[in-house]
Write a structure and sequence with these properties.
The chain is built from 8 helices and 9 strands. It has a 7-stranded parallel β-sheet with strand order 5-4-3-6-7-8-9, with helices on both faces. α5 links the parallel β7 and β8. The radius of gyration is 18 Å and the shape is globular. The N terminus is likely disordered.
Length: about 280
């Protein structure tokens, strides 16, 4: 497609985001598990927009995502989700030198096998605490360790990934939905805490994407059926794609997102706003 000029000399491809929107900016995406993870698509888009992007993944997934990491051209850090020290080590490494951390994208989640197949009444306390810790508390921990680095940036941004399951009754999603609701609350209180330092934090609430996690949780047939309903009932007439979420993340990670914080931006083509 032919590039289109925009203000400030940044070029944008028709139908796409400005190609240099994040030029010179440096950040990290927490939670890349494979080519069908939202974290990967966000990291790739941020890289295409000009940013230097580091990522984290589980130690067991490092070899699997190595080709994707090579494509991104950034560093990869293994993080054991239940080990806070491994998360702290990431930001210690990123803090070497004087370069700022301009953005942080949080997409960490971990659901023990079989938990969502059971009734919410049968969820063990240990499983509940693990899901809550990884999905919500880790955002607070990441912001704590990233704070000194974000404070070096002239436009520091934090973006968390949530879902409609935080406020809508969603089959086979109970504990994950509760944790996402806690994540959104954490975004609010972090916004109040970090705002005085110029750090903006927002969340993206996306409707169903065919991630490996989603397919494992609800099954491919149910995922296809759900996306078909969303396409039929949305204002745009289509289900969302990875690029919709990734481009929104690019905006929220950029200096263009000014004085907007504590918000949850819904990406579902207007599906949640329709009555019929």
């Amino acid at each position: 497609m032919r590039p289109t000029s925009v203000a400030g000399g940044v070029e944008a491809t028709a139908g796409g985001p400005p190609s240099g929107l994040l030029a010179g900016r440096r950040g990290i995406v927490l939670g890349v598990s494979g080519i069908n993870s939202i974290g990967y698509h966000i990291a790739r888009t941020l890289r295409e927009l000009g940013a230097t992007v580091a990522v984290t993944c589980r130690p067991a997934r490092l070899a699997h995502v190595a080709p994707l990491i090579a494509e991104l051209g950034g560093a990869a850090y293994p993080v054991e989700l239940a080990d806070e020290s491994s998360l702290a080590a990431v930001f210690d490494a990123l803090g070497q030198g004087e370069a700022p951390l301009d953005f942080l994208v949080h997409g960490l989640v971990d659901i023990p096998d079989g938990v969502l197949a059971r009734s919410v009444l049968d969820v063990a306390r240990a499983d509940f605490e693990h899901v809550m810790s990884v999905a919500a508390w880790s955002l607070i921990a990441a912001c704590r360790y990233a704070h000194p680095l974000l404070a070096r940036s002239t436009a520091p941004r934090v973006v968390a990934l949530t879902s409609a399951g935080s406020h809508r009754m969603t089959p086979h999603y109970h504990v994950a939905g509760i944790a996402k609701a806690a994540l959104e609350s954490a975004v609010l209180y972090l916004a109040m805490q970090l705002g005085k330092d110029g750090i903006l934090i927002n969340a993206i609430g996306a409707s169903l994407l065919p991630t490996d996690g989603a397919l494992r949780t609800i099954g491919e047939r149910n995922a296809q059926a759900t996306r078909a309903v969303q396409a039929r009932r949305s204002a745009t007439g289509r289900a969302i794609e990875y690029s919709d979420v990734a481009r929104c993340a690019g905006f929220l990670c950029s200096p263009l997102a000014c004085n907007v914080t504590g918000e949850v931006l819904t990406i579902d083509g207007g599906f949640s706003r329709t009555y019929l």
